[in-house]
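stage 2 :: seqdesign
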């Protein structure tokens, strides 16, 4: 089993920045891909970004491209999501996800076996 714990959410004004962290523990050797999804009230969970090691690959949703950056510290088993130029429509619960994935980094939630509890991000206008 792999445990994921997110942190770093909060309230920020539009145009501001936040950095989310997701620390993995347990059988982390069984994962090579970690990602972020988000879910706003009344909406489906949507892909934000993901990063894979060996081979290295990153993928972003079009809505966050150029504003968000995903990175990974393998020594700490932690993935980060730096969010800049935040917009009110970025308001959501952000979830960390992980799995061992071959081929193209997937953007659908069911492709990931492990999930964190989520952290709230609220962007005020």
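stage 2 :: out
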């Amino acid at each position: 089993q792999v445990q994921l714990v997110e942190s770093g959410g909060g309230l920020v004004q539009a145009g501001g920045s936040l950095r989310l962290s997701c620390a993995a523990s347990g059988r982390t050797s069984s994962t090579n891909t970690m990602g972020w999804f988000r879910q706003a009230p009344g909406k489906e969970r949507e892909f934000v970004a993901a990063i894979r090691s060996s081979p290295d690959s990153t993928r972003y949703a079009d809505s966050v491209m150029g504003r968000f950056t995903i990175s990974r510290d393998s020594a700490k088993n932690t993935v980060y999501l730096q969010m800049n130029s935040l917009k009110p429509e970025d308001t959501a619960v952000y979830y960390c996800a992980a799995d061992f994935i071959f081929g193209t980094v997937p953007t659908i939630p069911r492709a990931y076996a492990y999930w964190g509890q989520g952290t709230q991000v609220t962007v005020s206008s």
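stage 3 :: structure notes
- The mean pLDDT is 95.
- The two ends are 40 Å apart (CA to CA).
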